[in-house]
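Input.
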Amino acid sequence: MTKTQTRVPPAEASSAGAAWTGWVVFASIMLAVVGLINLVQGFAALFSEDYFVIQSGNELLVGDFETWGIVMLIWGGAQVAAGMGLNTGHGWARVLAVTVACVSILVQIAFLAAFPIWSLTIIALDVIVIYALTARWEEARAEL
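Output.
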């Protein structure tokens, strides 16, 4: 071992990995919860047109309520699947979760006019999820 290398005791390495495992679990739970909320929003768009604040005739921002409801149902399902997959520790679930969180940020920016506080909250959670899944993934995965 050279002078510049430092040896990390196994107990410290294990606790650092365990801390990042907690972040991954948090990310998986947040994705699943946000996905479930998006499923509820999808059903609300399909069955209650007066739920959404901003509307122009029968359209909501980028389409009609039925289209938006179907998109939200599919999107919520993808978020729930990514969240559940993360708990298994699979690499595909991490890629899906990061992709879903990135696209979610773009979707929430488009939806910002209708629900600004909700959109900003989801954007913040998505950023935290992306951070949790990209920073020190190998340490967290070793603990899963």
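Strands lie at 59-60, 63-64.
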